[in-house]
């Protein structure tokens, strides 16, 4: 089903390698930058043994990856780039110190996937850049030989032997899985176009399935016949050039995905939904190539239209970009290309936004050619189709200054466009410039209108580290404060505005209303990196929080992205308690086929519990969790003779005041 089951938690730093225990297929070893190797029962989620190595004593602070063979744990040391073997002692204690360590080989790659063991450790592989070196009889230093193989045009990232040892799998930046046949010169099989660069390869114990992990946070499951049979896609952690957006229809988070695409990710289910191909060109995974990438995107208020900007030529003077308008297709439940504008501006588009009105849809783009343009739908006279395409409706400028930002008011009656240090206010109905605001020093960096009761205010941040608020009724500066705001994010569902400020190597968060400069909520040091992307996500049901410090989370939830590509959010204590309790409960999905035993006992037990609660509300007593015997591992249960009477009695109730239930007597007789 590709659904997440559970996680194993215990390492205090990044997990760098995992491998199954060859002596027990229900156990797995893991290693970490914290210098420990842990043995887990991954079915029950139990930590069995904690092996502490001597790496820290020899000033080696990272255990990169482990390979198990003949009771040895082999690790790559990134400080001296040696292959080191650590003997795993047998002990009944949970925490064991591994003291026996020896160097196996020197001058190896620091890449944790640089080493692969064949069956019986008689064949061993290293790779050096684009070459693969095969060593035979590696454990006998005087008898080993080696040969060199070549296909990859760039650095090889990972190697893996099949269980029988007759084939070798390799992968790299080309995103092609290569299978080499041992003993057959130049005989190879290829599986291309798997997505991002291949970072790691694994093979199942029976050799029927291969698994590859990719740089785009994806796992691909492949049959031995080289056919893809499953994909587990997480949130693509690549360079994010667009803003964080919410699709008004699916409520999915939308941002840059794999190259040339936008990804739609469900925050509620924590699951990738689909990718939308914007560039519609095959991406070539090769360093140094100048290829199209999506740099801007925006939805209209109803989610009927999507605007995107793709460009290439950042590193050269030959800038090429396209503005595309996508319409939502009710039949396919996806976006289809409606209009492509090849010459929207003569220079790079730096900002764009849709109007907030549900009646008429308008798109405004601002570019470095000292102009902003308004785009509207209109029938194409040259075609006889009923489809409406987009065309330019107005071109605006101000003293040949380059615009820096644009934003519509909540009712779309006003458009604010900033030109360097000046903010211009326009009427979209007549395209008359109503006024200008230019009191604060510094170039305008961010711009947004207030919402709901604060819709008369306009907020802006400047390069001189000022946060300013203007009253549009009086056209005067209402208040300003000195703060270096890296991201200003209004909540479209309330009056609240979030401001992220970076100073002293950490980011602080301030939540406030434009009508009052006093923050409603302050959180110091939310992360150590700058925050440039944030979004408020609407809740399915509003919360009823009475705590003043968390009331700003009642209608929506704030998500933000750090420079390290960590997606973080804020939640209330009530939500944390709910998530913690739900994680401890074993829930059977109604969509899963149930057994006759569950139909007989489980459903009836639930109904009877409701009946008992209604009939005896005051006679509360600890109740056993239905199905606890069925879900508890057998090796931790008491003897069956001890549990039998308790289990049978749990299905019996007093007949006082309760209508007799024939099914209950049948259950009792059947169990007896």
UniProtKB/TrEMBL annotation:
WD repeats lie at residues 8-41, 149-181, 342-375. Pfam families: Beta-prop_WDR75_1st, Beta-prop_WDR75_2nd. One of its GO terms (molecular function) is RNA binding. Residues 244-565 form the WD repeat-containing protein 75 second beta-propeller domain. Its main location: nucleus. Gene3D superfamilies: YVTN repeat-like/Quinoprotein amine dehydrogenase. InterPro entries: Beta-prop_WDR75_2nd, WD40/YVTN_repeat-like_dom_sf, WD40_repeat_dom_sf, WD40_rpt, WDR75. PROSITE patterns: WD_REPEATS_2, WD_REPEATS_REGION. GO terms for biological process: positive regulation of rRNA processing; positive regulation of transcription by RNA polymerase I; rRNA processing. One of its GO terms (cellular component) is small-subunit processome. The keyword rRNA processing applies. It is found in: Nucleus, Nucleolus. Keywords: Nucleus, Repeat, Ribosome biogenesis, rRNA processing, Transcription, WD repeat. The keyword Magnesium does not apply. This is WD repeat domain 75.
């Amino acid at each position: 089903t590709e659904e997440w089951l559970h996680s194993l938690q215990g390492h205090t730093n990044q997990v760098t390698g995992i491998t199954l225990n060859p002596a027990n297929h229900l156990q797995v070893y893991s290693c970490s930058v914290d210098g420990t190797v842990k043995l887990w029962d991954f079915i029950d989620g139990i930590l069995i043994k904690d092996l502490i190595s001597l790496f820290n004593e020899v000033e080696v602070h990272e255990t990169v990856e482990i390979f198990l063979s003949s009771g040895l744990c082999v690790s790559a040391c990134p400080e001296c780039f040696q292959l080191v073997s650590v003997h795993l002692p047998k002990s009944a204690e949970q925490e064991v110190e591994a003291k026996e360590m020896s160097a196996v080989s020197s001058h190896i790659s620091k890449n944790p996937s640089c080493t692969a063991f064949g069956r019986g450790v008689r064949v061993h592989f290293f790779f050096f850049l684009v070459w693969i070196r095969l060593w035979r009889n590696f454990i006998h230093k005087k008898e080993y030989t080696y040969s060199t193989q070549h296909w990859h045009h760039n650095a090889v990232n990972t190697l893996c032997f099949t269980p029988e040892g007759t084939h070798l799998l390799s992968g790299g930046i080309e995103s092609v899985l290569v299978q080499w046949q041992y003993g057959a010169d130049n005989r190879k099989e290829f599986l291309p176009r798997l997505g991002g660069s291949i970072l790691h390869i694994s093979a199942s114990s029976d050799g029927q399935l291969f698994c590859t992990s990719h740089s785009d946070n994806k796992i691909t499951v492949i049959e031995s016949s080289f056919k893809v049979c499953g994909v587990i896609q997480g949130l693509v952690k690549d360079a994010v050039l667009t803003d964080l957006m919410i699709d008004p229809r699916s409520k999915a988070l939308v941002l840059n995905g794999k190259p040339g695409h936008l990804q739609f990710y469900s925050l509620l289910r924590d699951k990738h939904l689909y990718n939308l191909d914007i560039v519609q060109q095959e991406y070539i995974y090769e360093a140094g190539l100048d290829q199209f990438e999506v740099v801007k995107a925006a939805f209209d208020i109803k989610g009927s239209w999507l605007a995107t900007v793709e460009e290439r030529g950042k590193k050269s003077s030959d800038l090429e970009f396209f503005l595309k308008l996508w319409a939502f297709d009710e039949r396919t439940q996806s976006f289809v290309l409606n209009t492509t504008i090849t010459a929207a501006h003569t220079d790079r588009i730096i900002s764009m936004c849709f109007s907030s009105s549900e009646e008429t849809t308008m798109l405004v783009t601002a570019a470095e050619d000292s102009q902003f343009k308004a785009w509207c739908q209109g029938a194409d006279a040259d075609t006889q189709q009923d489809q409406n395409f987009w065309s330019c409706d107005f071109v605006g400028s101000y003293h040949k200054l380059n615009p820096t930002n644009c934003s519509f008011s909540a009712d779309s009656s006003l458009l604010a466009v900033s030109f360097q240090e000046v903010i211009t206010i326009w009427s979209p109905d007549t395209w008359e410039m109503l006024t200008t605001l230019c009191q604060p020093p510094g170039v305008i960096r961010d711009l947004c209108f207030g919402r709901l009761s604060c819709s008369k205010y306009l907020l802006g941040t400047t390069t001189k580290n000022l946060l300013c608020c203007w009253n549009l009724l009086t056209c005067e500066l209402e208040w300003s404060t000195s703060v270096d705001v890296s991201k200003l994010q209004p909540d479209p569902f309330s009056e609240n505005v979030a401001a992220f400020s970076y100073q002293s190597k950490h980011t602080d968060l301030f939540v406030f209303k434009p009508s009052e400069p006093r923050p409603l909520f302050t959180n110091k040091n939310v992360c150590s990196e700058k925050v440039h992307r944030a979004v408020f996500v609407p809740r399915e049901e509003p919360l009823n929080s009475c705590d003043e410090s968390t009331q700003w989370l009642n209608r929506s939830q704030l998500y933000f992205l750090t420079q390290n590509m960590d997606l973080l959010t804020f939640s209330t204590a009530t939500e944390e308690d709910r998530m913690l309790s739900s994680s401890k409960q074993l829930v059977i999905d109604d969509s899963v086929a149930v057994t006759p035993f569950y139909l007989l006992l489980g459903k009836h037990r639930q109904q009877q519990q409701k009946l008992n609660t209604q009939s005896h509300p005051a006679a509360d007593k600890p109740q056993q969790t239905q199905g606890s015997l069925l879900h508890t591992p057998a090796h931790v249960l008491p003897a069956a003779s001890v549990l039998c009477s308790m289990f049978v009695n749990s299905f019996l109730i007093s007949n006082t005041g309760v209508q007799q239930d024939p099914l209950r007597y049948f259950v009792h007789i059947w169990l007896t």
